[in-house]
Amino acid sequence: MKFKKKEAYQEKVEAELEELEARINLLIAKAKNAGTDTRIKAKNQISLLKEKYEKVNQEISGLQSKSKDAWKEVTKGIDEALDDLKVSVDEAIEQFS
Fold first, then answer.
1. pLDDT of amino acid 1
2. How far apart are the two ends of the chain, measured CA to CA in Å?
């Protein structure tokens, strides 16, 4: 049962991460069509988003190998990092839309 919970959790956060990646890619496409100043600002914002994305992605990748106690702590960190990434993506899209 515990393995299924880990697996379900990992699938859930991977799906959320894929959605956020698609939204980041949309922002990249919009930035390409923007004016110079906006494009520069968007480029910096996108760079930060990609860093946050990679951090969450790396944490998810190592999830299955964690012990029970470590797994609980790691999922807490993943949830916080994923929430931060969501907020950042939402803010960036709002700013550059």
1. 40
2. 44
